[in-house]
Amino acid sequence: MTNQNNAIRFYSGHNIPVELHKVRIVQKLYLKPIDERKAAMEEAGFNTFLLNTKEVFLDMLTDSGTNAMSDNQVASMLQADDAYAGSQSFYRMEAALRDVFGKHYVLPVHQGRAAENIISQVFIKKGDVIPMNYHFTTTKEHMELNGGKVLEIYADDALQIKSDKPFKGNIDIEKLKAVFTEYGKDRVAFVRMEASTNLIGGQPFSMQNMRDVKKICDENGTMMVLDASLIGENAWFIKQREEEFKNAEIKDILLEMCSYSDLIYFSSRKVSSTRGGGIVTNSKDLYLKMRDLLVLFEGFLTYGGMSVREIEAMAVGINETCDETVISQSPSFIAYAVNQLDDVGIPVITPPGALGCHIDAKGFLSHVPQQEYPAGALASALFIISGIRGMERGSISSVRDENGNDILADVELLRLAFPRRVFTLSQTMFVVDRVKWLYDNRNLVGGLEWVEEPALLRFFMGRLKAKTDWPEKLVAKFKQDFGDSL
Ligand SMILES: *Cc1c(COP(=O)(O)O)cnc(C)c1O
Questions:
Q1: Looking at CB atoms within 10 Å, which of 72, 141, 298, 423 has the fewest?
Q2: How many angstroms does the Cα of residue 130 sit away from the middle of ligand 1?
Q3: So what's the pLDDT on residue 457?
């Protein structure tokens, strides 16, 4: 492929993203009548995690383990070499990871959080701090379990919903310096950078920021750890948004990002569209520190809790991360959806990022108090009127303090995930259309209250109900506007 700016090439004229793949295996979807969708939502306790996918039309809950596999990935699974130790499948994957990440030592794990467990156990001691651009749910839990404290040192305006800053995932360099001054380098376990920062709207960091962070790490003799679960998309944004890289090959961008990282871990459920995960490094010393725990928690060194079929598909998937048509697909469809909604004044996180379209529920349902969970209400309402399943990322996903009061979230988001190469443009247009209808009728949507509230990770299994009869009113208006149409 010649060097040219592919941002233009992947669009047909007026910002219409084009699928650079064709569909060869399909799964039938069901769009149920609205009364059935409402009943399903009530049955699920107004919690989209508790829906059965038989009731769901477009499943935009997450990109985790839901990206579409390529024909080459599926084909590779047939050559899987079943062996407890020394499987050829592992060596193929190891070679792919060495090639793409430029790291020699490879530790396979069953999924991303398993890598977090091992890294946290080995490198964090009680009283340590871990500065980072932003936390991820499982990352933070593992770090705290090992006595560490997460310090989020993003720029002051990184959580602003509407913005034109290209790299909201950057670490604030002055704040990083201040961390070393305040705590001293011995208490900084390592610095963590997360590619395409998941919980703040899939926002990338720049290469320049990585260089600046690495410089400070070197000055203090501290490791830089990269969470590479969404590294492909971050590399794509560097190419699109950072002048220096506009003609660079993705493979070279990835290698440069990895060169600044002493340790890299990832969830293969995202980065290579399979299952599993891994940790890679060039340091034999770091590798040896983690190796024994890998055998204890995950499995032998040549499978790490993964099936050999997954390992084969991961080898192919990692190589496909260097392919612009693969890593640009989700961001370009997200950009399409975000721009369509932004154009009519619907509050969404801008600039468009990776992973999904993030709707600001506080702005969308400004009449619903935060104590009544606007992001959860919006997720429920959207499912009822469309069969689209999104994920609440607001106060339901938060916790209570020691006095039993809700700790209200910084932002109330409804995330509509775009797993890679799963949805077509017409399905994306359907999403935009239904969100617009809901926005026009937003005053009909009310709040939620708890019916069953688990003490731990309540957002996964908790059940709620509507505080008023707003779902009935919403259904009535839908029928008035759409008649018998689904
Ligand atoms: C998903 C994710 C993880 C955890 O990976 P799992 O495979 O789900 O355990 C860690 N970090 C980031 C940034 C993620 O998106």
A1: 72
A2: 17
A3: 81
